[in-house]
Write a structure and sequence with these properties.
335 residues; alpha+beta; nine-stranded antiparallel beta sheet; three-stranded antiparallel beta sheet; 14 strands; disordered N terminus
């Protein structure tokens, strides 16, 4: 008996069905390609967030210091460029227990006896009691400043040290925990002085301050030789020469020129460097390549009286904030 072969049914696909199947296949291929990346991105984000959270809870400064930029000039330059590019910066801290280590630091040439503190003590802006080590430590914290690009490492590892002398005068220090560089200090609760002190801060004095600060914070290491300094000196001489109206006799006629000193001072900023002064503030712009950072000296408005020649202040040492503005503004205790 012969069996008839069954014919297989053929499935006919309409063009619309074919297009739908091709679309689904394409979706599956795309999903297969991107799903691992999405998973890894979620995982990386989770790990990064955990790292920052862990950092806030317990900073492993020893491991951070391994990749910490030891050159102050390069560290400041990277930070200045980040500020110029509009990067966001954050600070996290942990409180440290008072120990002999902080007193040893303060007594060393990396602490109170380093050039920056001696420079401002010579100006009588730092109470002498702190150099005599007549103080106790109110607070000691470890701060870390970092940007959104945490993977590239932290920008600054800092000590915040708050001191108080027996008269109740407070001094706040923001120092590099690795190198001792002081990025800012602030004095509070200074006492009234019956004898008014007078300090003269003309452009020559301010240029000396600018030159000292530019060297201390290694800004000049990015200039060829000292071309910028020489240029600023020439411009300073021009300002000095033109501060008073100059009379010139030309062909028997006298011409008087009233120079705009503010315009001359603006010349000093054309290479993102120079200084400015107003009432109780002095601002020193330090160049780091194309970018710059500001070192500010801000005297308490209640402790100064301004005149055309300088500043009169009524305290034994004025209440003052001195430091790199873009750094100390991140720290709450300096706000």
């Amino acid at each position: 008996m012969r069996h008839k072969k069954r014919r297989k049914k053929q499935i006919y696909r309409t063009p619309l069905i074919l297009m739908g199947e091709l679309f689904m296949l394409a979706c599956l291929l795309i999903a297969a390609s991107y799903t691992p990346q999405i998973i890894f991105q979620i995982q990386d984000s989770f790990l990064c967030n955990n790292t920052i959270i862990d950092k806030r809870e317990s900073m492993d400064v020893e491991s951070l210091s391994v990749t910490y930029e030891k050159s102050l000039g390069r560290r400041m330059k990277v930070f200045a460029e980040g500020v110029m590019a509009g990067e966001n910066y954050y600070a996290t801290f942990q409180t440290l227990s008072d120990s002999q280590e902080v007193y040893n630091y303060m007594e060393s040439d990396m602490g109170m006896f380093q050039d920056l503190m001696l420079f401002f003590w010579d100006m009588e802006w730092v109470p002498y009691s702190f150099f005599k080590m007549e103080f106790f430590v109110n607070q000691w914290k470890q701060y870390v400043i970092y940007s959104d690009n945490y993977a590239e490492g932290v920008n600054f590892i800092l000590w915040y040290i708050e001191l108080q002398d027996k008269e109740g005068i407070v001094m706040k220090l923001l120092a590099d925990a690795e190198t001792g560089t002081i990025y800012a200090f602030k004095t509070e609760n200074n006492h009234y002085n019956a004898k008014t002190e007078f300090r003269q801060y003309d452009d020559e004095t301010l240029f000396e301050y600018w030159n000292f600060l530019a060297n201390y914070y290694e800004a000049l290491s990015f200039e060829t030789d000292n071309e910028l300094v020489q240029e600023l000196m020439k411009e300073y001489e021009m300002i000095k020469m033109n501060e008073q109206s100059a009379a010139y006799a030309i062909n028997g006629n006298t011409y008087v020129y009233d120079w705009n000193i503010e315009q001359e001072k603006e010349l000093m900023l054309r290479d993102n460097a120079g200084f400015q002064r107003k009432r109780n503030e002095m601002n020193f712009i330090l160049p780091y390549g194309e970018a710059s950072l500001d070192v500010c000296i801000i005297l308490d408005k209640d402790s100064v009286f301004d005149d055309t020649m300088g500043i009169n202040y009524y305290f034994v040492s004025p209440n003052v904030t001195i430091g790199v503005r873009q750094i100390y503004e991140i720290i709450p205790e300096f706000a």
